[in-house]
Amino acid sequence: IRDTSVTGVQTCALPILQYTSGTTGDSKFCSFNQSQIDYVSNQLIKFFNLTENDRYVGVMPLWQGHGLSFYWITEKLNCQRNFLPVKNITSAHTYDPTFLTGIPHMLKVLLRDNFRDLRFIRSGGAPLPSELYQGLREKFQVPVLESCGFTESCNIGFCNIPGQEVPGSIGQPLGIEARVSRSEEHTSELQSPMYL
To answer: Rg for the chain (alpha carbons), in Å?
Structure first.
């Protein structure tokens, strides 16, 4: 399937088909077209102020959707990227990453390492224990940004804003619109430019 609607550009209309139990717990396939991938990449590049000078280390298989979205970013920016099998996670520091993104278990292992040029740490996939949050902040002296992205939304969702982190919170909508509702009578709208 090809999309030729943009003059002179031919992109695959369905470049990603990902299998997940996702947010709902029901197994399903999620598909993402090129414009969704580009939108997510652009939102994350802008939000995290990423450039071609950044360096990324992905750990397999603890990669999930958030690792995939950061892979798209590194492709788009053509910045340095390295991928390690989980058994070699303790060598991540040798690639001198400028940011870390991962699940809390992975970040707990990386807490034992020394990183020189970190600008931020992003946690997702599960709640970040408060003692791990504090340990990461104290050791690396960089923002620790808890987030929540959903496979079904191309891994864009909520993230704490650097300098305005609220420990234990998934943060604010990032590139999406969200509605928090306890009942039909009590609804709060949270706005951002993307509709899901």
So the answer is: 17
